[in-house]
Amino acid sequence: MSFLIDDDRPIFAQIAARIENDILEGILPEESQVPSTNQFAAYYKINPATAAKGVNLLVDQGILYKKRGIGMFVASGARAVLMETRKQQFYEQYVVTMVQEAKKLGITFPQLTEMIEKGATE
């Protein structure tokens, strides 16, 4: 399992994020079966309903789908959808904030670019 449940987000959201990360990293390829809610519940020692809430969040987004009597599977195109969603979140959470802060500090675009390049090589 790729992370421990210990941050400030609700547990069901952490379960959903864990599945998303596994899809993005190729651990869960498209059309592969995801662990059952009972497996998540047992591993993390949580209520199966909490695990189901995280899984159902991804079903509602079209990332996972249910095969009746078999379990949940990663939908075709799920990785591309997640990549686009995460890129937009990255832009909104980091890039916009960084540019706003750079403007406050009088950092020019060339200076900002230099800082980013330096950070990428360290």
UniProtKB/TrEMBL annotation:
Assigned keywords, A-Z: DNA-binding, Transcription, Transcription regulation
Highest taxon in the source lineage: Bacteria
Alphabetized CDD domains for the sequence: WHTH_GntR
InterPro entries according to UniProt: Tscrpt_reg_HTH_GntR, WH-like_DNA-bd_sf, WH_DNA-bd_sf
Entries under Pfam families matching the protein: GntR
GO MF annotations in UniProt: DNA binding; DNA-binding transcription factor activity
Residue span, HTH gntR-type domain: 9-77
Database matches in PANTHER family: GNTR-FAMILY TRANSCRIPTIONAL REGULATOR, HTH-TYPE TRANSCRIPTIONAL REPRESSOR YTRA
Name recorded for this polypeptide: GntR family transcriptional regulator
Organism: Paenibacillus sabuli
